[in-house]
């Protein structure tokens, strides 16, 4: 693990590239070279720790409308990542096209948010984008699925039945927010467990739209962690998600004959998603006493409803599950991104991949070779048995939490029980 001193105080450097999307395609046109070890270093405990509640952080706005690298905080634990535009160093010549996820973020989102709240949620935002969103992308994610809506609603209700509100669930299961020194301690211990100390640059920032995001910066794998999302009982789960799943599978993937797009075609690989995000999402909650799949379930439900509702109607519909208006706004923006006139039904369905992947893995968990799934890299669980004779398994990394496979499998069973998932129902929904 390497500390990025420039990021420790909350102002991380601009990312020079984003990692490939989980299905092997790139969300950025900029190249992402294979990770290489960075020089080792010892993290310091920075001064000036600023601690914000996640709900309160979601309501903050930047002091300057022109600010690029810093801005309004989002509810960090509520949502996965939406990439944010950042100024590129050097400008002019050699500038790369922006990340797709940046292109999907409305450039007037702050102004529309203010108007939406000013008009007491009775207004449908009219979003503008810095560049036209590629029609092929919108077409790919235009249609929402309702296949697992019943399971999503059951998970949501299970949380509310136990905790009353999402906000109470967050406090009860997430624990207290951690100081920077405490965060560094957890990170250092986790990196040692995975044997990757010195390989990943770690940034602590208050300028991220999610709990964490892995990226490539200066040709090095970099993990940015949101200070307002680092909770006592959730931080290690985030590290299992980003490092123990995405990073380790990515490193293993670089050794495989299918590491390139041409190789994936040669071996007729299925997309890595929904396996990639499903597996990472399961690992996020793996050892929680109450491993509820709230976030994946609510995203799935929100997107399905967005495909049939306007923005304002969707916002009203979500009130039955989330009282905090700032958090609801964020879910609605995610579901409606890519749209210009949000008074019309429509969605961007990519975030349904989390629950989709989770349920497919849980359905087939008794027949999946999980250590091999990690060792083979960015592959679908459906391809594991076919690929094992071709895989380069020497020196493959296996996440430390998979070493005790019996315990790992019991935890997956616990997730099924906690979320009130019905085995027979999953077999009927996913017969093969």
TrEMBL record:
Its cofactor is Zn(2+). Residues 1-71 are annotated as: Disordered. Signal peptide: none annotated. GO terms for cellular component: microtubule. GO terms for molecular function: tubulin-tyrosine carboxypeptidase. One of its GO terms (biological process) is proteolysis. Keywords: Hydrolase, Metalloprotease, Protease. Residues 56-71 have a biased composition (Low complexity). The keyword Hydrolase applies. It comes from the Eukaryota. The keyword Cytoplasm does not apply. This is Microtubule associated tyrosine carboxypeptidase 1. It comes from Gallus gallus (Chicken).
């Amino acid at each position: 693990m390497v500390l990025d001193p420039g990021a420790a105080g909350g102002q991380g450097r601009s990312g020079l590239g984003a990692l490939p999307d989980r299905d092997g395609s790139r969300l950025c046109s900029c190249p992402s070279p294979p990770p290489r070890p960075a020089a080792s270093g010892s993290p310091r405990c920075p001064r000036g720790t600023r601690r914000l509640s996640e709900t309160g952080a979601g309501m903050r706005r930047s002091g300057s409308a022109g600010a690029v690298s810093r801005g309004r905080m989002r509810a960090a634990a509520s949502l996965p990542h939406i990439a944010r535009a950042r100024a590129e160093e050097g400008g002019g010549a050699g500038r790369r096209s922006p990340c797709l996820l940046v292109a999907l973020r409305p450039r007037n989102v702050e102004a529309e948010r203010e108007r939406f709240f000013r008009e007491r949620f009775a207004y449908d935002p009219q979003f503008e984008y810095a560049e036209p969103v590629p029609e092929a992308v919108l077409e790919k994610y235009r249609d929402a699925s309702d296949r697992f809506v019943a399971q999503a609603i059951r998970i949501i209700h299970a949380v509310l039945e136990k905790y009353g509100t999402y906000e109470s669930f967050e406090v009860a299961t997430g624990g207290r927010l951690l100081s920077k020194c405490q965060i560094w301690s957890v990170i250092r211990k986790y990196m040692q467990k995975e044997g990757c100390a010195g390989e990943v640059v770690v940034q602590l920032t208050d300028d991220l739209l999610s709990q964490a995001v892995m990226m490539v910066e200066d040709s090095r794998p970099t993990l940015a962690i949101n200070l307002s999302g680092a909770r006592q009982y959730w931080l290690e789960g985030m590290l299992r998600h980003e490092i123990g799943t995405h990073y380790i599978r990515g490193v293993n993937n670089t050794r495989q004959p299918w590491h390139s797009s041409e190789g994936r075609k040669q071996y007729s690989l299925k997309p890595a998603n929904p396996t990639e995000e499903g597996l990472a999402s399961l690992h996020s909650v793996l050892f929680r006493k109450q491993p509820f799949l709230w976030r994946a379930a609510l995203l799935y439900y929100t997107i399905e409803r967005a495909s049939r509702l306007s923005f304002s109607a969707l916002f009203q519909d979500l009130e039955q599950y989330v009282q905090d208006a700032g958090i609801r706004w964020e879910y609605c923006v995610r579901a409606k991104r890519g749209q210009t006139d949000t008074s019309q039904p429509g969605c961007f369905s990519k975030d349904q991949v989390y629950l989709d992947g989770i349920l497919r893995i849980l359905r087939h968990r008794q027949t999946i070779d999980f250590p091999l799934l990690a060792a083979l890299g960015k592959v679908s669980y459906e391809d594991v048995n076919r690929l094992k004779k071709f895989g380069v398994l020497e020196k493959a990394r296996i996440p430390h939490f998979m070493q005790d496979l019996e315990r790992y499998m019991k935890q997956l069973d616990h997730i099924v029980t906690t979320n009130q998932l019905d085995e027979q129902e999953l077999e009927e929904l996913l017969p093969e």
